[in-house]
Amino acid sequence: MKRFALLTMAMSLPMAGAAPAMAAEASAQGTQEGSTRSLYISLIRQARTDGRPRAAIAYLDDFDRQHPDDREAQLLRVNCLLDLGQVAAARTALSRIPSSDRSGSAQAMRGHVFAAEGNWKQAALQYAAALQVSPTDAFIANALGYAWLRAGQSAQAVETLRGAHDLAPDDAVVRNNLMLALTVTGRLAEADGLLSQVADTREKARLRQQIAGEAARLAVAGSGSLSLGS
Prior knowledge:
- Mean pLDDT is 84; it is low at 1-30 and 223-230.
- This protein has eleven helices and no strands.
- α5 (104-116) runs antiparallel to α6 (120-133) and α9 (172-184) runs antiparallel to α10.
- By secondary structure, the protein is mainly α.
C-alpha cells in the first residue's frame, strides 16, 4: 500500500465552494490509482499462471517503484522466486514481510519457504497456523496434509487431506495427495476408490503407477519431492 505524508495543520483550507469539486477530484484520483494497482497485480498473477515467473518478477520490480510496501506484491515475489527454485532469494524476500504478520497468507508463505528448504516439520507448523486463520482454505489444508506426510506424520496427513478433499472435492491435486497418503498408510481400498473416479483409463494407469512409486520412495527414504499434479 502506498503511504502518504500527513497534512500539516498550517495548511490553508480551501474555499467552501471549491471543496466538493476538490473532494470529487481526490476521490477519482484514488479510484484510478486503485484500479491501476489492481490491473498491475492481475498482470503479475497472469504472468505467473502462464509459467513466466521471470516476467512476473520484472513487472514486480516496476510495480515496487510505485508501491514499495505492497504486501500482496511481496507475497507474489516470494512465490515467483520459489517457482524459479531460487530458495535463498525467496527466504530473503520473505524477510520483508514482518514477523508480526500472522495472516493466513503470510503464514502459508512461510510454510512454502520451509517446504522448499526441506524443513517439513516447520512447514507443517506454519501451515497449521495458517489453517487456523483460514479454516475453509482447501489449498492450505492440502499443503498441511502433504507437509505432515513428508514429516512422517502419516495419520495426521490422511485426516488433514480428507478435510481438504471435502472442501475441494473436484481438485485433482488434493485428490491425488489424499490417494498418496492413503497408499502410504496401507488403506489401498480407499485409495482405489478415489482412483476409480478418474474416467480416462490411460490417466488412471499413469496415476496408479505414479502414486505407487512415490509411496514406495516415501517408505524407503522417509520423504518425497513434490506434491502430485493432476
